[in-house]
Amino acid sequence: xxxxxxxxxxxxxxxxxxxxxxxxxxxxxxxxxxxxxxxxxxxxxxxxxxxxxxxxxxxxxxxxxxxxxxxxxxxxxxxxxxxxxxxxxxxxxxxxxxxxxxxxxxxxx
Length: 109
Description:
Elements: H1 2-18, E1 28-33, H2 40-44, E2 49-50, E3 63-70, E4 74-75, E5 78-79, E6 86-90, E7 93-97, E8 101-107
Antiparallel strand pairs: 1-2, 1-3, 3-8, 4-5, 6-7
């Protein structure tokens, strides 16, 4: 019995420690809007949100510039086609909305 105790304790510790692994946090991705902000269909088209690297948005105003989403919502450098975008209109420009959108940046001109 004594020779099995070390093995039993080792297995118990291995199971115990593996139960407490910390999940890896996913990164967020900023996607740039490349469509026409005055056109509702354009703002709702997922392919118009693309990962272009760094983008500079001027002073925040009315026109959508970028959105930030979890990297899981990016497919081939664009917003996942399964994300449903709704819009609201303000001052002639449409603004995107979806639960997957974590933040937005706007620009003038």
